[in-house]
Specification:
single chain; alpha+beta; 5-stranded mixed sheet; 14 strands
Length: 406
């Protein structure tokens, strides 16, 4: 018989797949960081750092306290590469074949590549390639004029675009990051063993593998969610999911209140049994990045978690409802609210400017203890151990200030 799940059980299965069901149980290692990225398949990159840059925060939510340098080392070691996947992402290097077709058909990448720009600036773009070939890896800053007289190779804006074009074409890859700045090198030097003629899978095989990765990373899926993970073209993926179910890779399930088909990845078969017995529980509290895979698909977050979420850093300040860079709050299997925070590293203060709870979330001592513990650990990891809560509903700010009971 087809397993039937409550919405709560369905949520817990996705959290299990994403590594967010339970809090970290031991001190993390660099191998754990790579395993977490492989589990998610994609780790989105964003440069806003009012708290921590998104990829570091996504890993923290799963690993607990860890050394952020591990992510930089994994890239420099060649265990990861960067490319456009969901958006700009760190991707396990074994999945390079899944994105190579995008490099070879860059005109299909929309705003990320302009053929007209490339043709207009071909000579300058090729000069960058030859400069890197002769002189080794380079950052965009290496081509920046530092005054109006031409000290440096080129003006900042066009050369930044030239490097981005070469990156999107796959001719340059990010060899490492220094202070989060990309260091570019020739693709053949970063991946010397790659051969398009020998190694490139067919487009159909790529699409199938991307869908498989999406199903494994999400754990519980429906047809409408599959395309978003790798930003695939909208297509009828229902047939593909049913084929994967027939092959034993997915388990068809029914979810309370849903009329559409849903599937659980076979890697979660044991968790599915626990969920059906109502024994798959979550006591975890985590502060999430706005670009965490759990919430980056806003429709999925609304359907599965009843959480209507939008990042407002791109919204004019007078029109913001919650704050500049609001972080979703995961608590015991639910998305219960969001907070606008800023890490003041010079003063050692982790400021929660405002904290908002979802309708129906009751302020209790258990909730206050959960939040106090999670925020205290996050603040300590940042090197900003003093927690300051400016605004929160009811007496929650006072409870947080007093710390966990017991």
């Amino acid at each position: 018989m087809t397993p039937h799940l409550s919405l709560r059980q369905a949520r817990h299965l996705q959290l299990a797949a994403q590594g967010l069901l339970t809090a970290p149980r031991r001190k993390a290692s660099k191998a754990d960081a790579l395993a977490a990225i492989r589990r998610m398949a994609l780790l989105q990159i964003d440069t806003i750092s009012v708290v921590a840059r998104s990829p570091y925060l996504v890993l923290y939510s799963r690993l607990g306290a860890y050394d952020p340098a591990w992510l930089d080392q994994l890239l420099a070691d060649g265990a990861l590469f960067e490319y456009w996947a969901h958006e700009a992402c760190f991707v396990p290097v074994e999945d390079y074949p899944l994105l190579r077709h995008r490099m070879l058909d860059a005109e299909g990448m929309g705003w990320k590549f302009s053929r007209r720009w490339y043709e207009q600036h071909r000579a300058d773009i090729e000069a960058i390639v030859e400069h890197i070939r002769a002189n080794g890896p380079a950052r965009s800053a290496d081509f920046e004029r530092r005054d109006g007289k031409g000290n440096g190779w080129w003006d900042w804006k066009p050369e930044k675009r030239h490097l981005e074009a070469l990156f999107t074409l796959g001719r340059l890859m990010v060899k490492e990051r220094r202070g989060f700045q990309r260091v570019y090198d020739l693709a053949e030097r970063v991946l010397p063993g790659w051969d398009d003629a020998r190694d490139l899978p067919s487009p159909d095989e790529v699409r199938l593998r991307q869908v498989r990765n999406s199903c494994r990373a999400l754990g519980l899926v429906k047809t409408g969610w599959v395309a978003d993970y790798y930003r695939l073209k909208r297509a009828p993926y229902g047939e593909m999911l049913h084929r994967l179910a027939d092959a034993g890779e997915l388990i068809p399930v029914r979810v309370e209140g849903w009329s559409h088909d849903a599937f659980v990845h076979m890697s979660l078969a044991a968790e599915l049994e626990l969920a059906q017995a109502d024994r798959l529980n979550s006591g975890n509290t985590a502060i999430l990045s706005p670009f965490d895979p759990l919430v980056w698909d806003r429709k999925r977050a609304l359907e599965l978690f009843d959480f209507d979420y939008k990042i407002e850093c791109y919204t004019p300040a007078p029109k913001r409802r919650y704050g500049y860079f609001t972080l979703p709050i995961l608590n015991r299997g639910r998305l219960i609210g969001r907070l606008d925070a800023k890490a003041h590293r010079a003063g050692g203060v982790f400021e929660v400017k405002s904290l908002h709870l979802e309708a129906g979330v009751r302020i209790s001592q258990r909730l206050a203890d959960d939040l106090s513990g999670a925020l205290g650990r996050l603040a300590a990891w940042h090197g900003t151990p003093r927690l300051a809560v400016t605004a929160a509903p009811g007496d929650l700010a006072a409870r947080l200030a007093s710390g966990p009971e017991g």
